[in-house]
């Protein structure tokens, strides 16, 4: 339940949650780079995971004003594209981790 003077705080909290999530993905991607068995593997992990998470962070920040307007008008704040993008990046990071763990 939203307090009467709390208009627009939900999109801000959502944006902060997306920021924390994407920063955690960037940190995990950089950890994969650090633990990568080869230099090309590290470059691919850095470019794909960290780059994708950075784009997601920028996208979430750019959408904040639109979310505020939707909440003020009584609309929904959900952004299915952000959810799918974060899920895909997390799965890709898991795949990169598995590839690094397998002996080649």
Question: What is the mean predicted local confidence, pLDDT?
Answer: 75
Broad shape? elongated
What's the total number of strands? Answer: 0
Number of domains: 1
Q: What does the radius of gyration come to?
A: 17 Å
Strand fraction equals under 5%
The total count of helices amounts to 4
Residues in helix, %: over 70%
The string of secondary-structure elements, in order, is: HHHH
**End-to-end CA span:** 54 Å
Question: What this model shows, in words?
Answer:
The protein is mainly α. The protein has helices spanning 9-35, 39-62, 64-72, 80-101. The chain has one domain (10-101). Helix 1 packs antiparallel against helix 3. The mean pLDDT is 75.
Give short descriptive properties of this protein:
104 residues, mainly alpha, 4 helices, elongated
């Amino acid at each position: 339940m939203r307090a009467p003077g709390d208009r627009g705080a939900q999109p801000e909290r959502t944006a902060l949650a997306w920021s924390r999530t994407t920063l955690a993905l960037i940190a995990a991607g950089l950890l994969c780079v650090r633990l990568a068995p080869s230099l090309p593997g590290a470059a691919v992990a850095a470019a794909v995971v960290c780059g994708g998470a950075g784009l997601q962070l920028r996208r979430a920040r750019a959408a904040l004003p639109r979310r505020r307007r939707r909440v003020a008008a009584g609309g929904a704040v959900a952004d299915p594209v952000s959810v799918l993008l974060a899920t895909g990046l997390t799965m890709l990071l898991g795949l990169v981790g598995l590839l690094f763990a397998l002996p080649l």
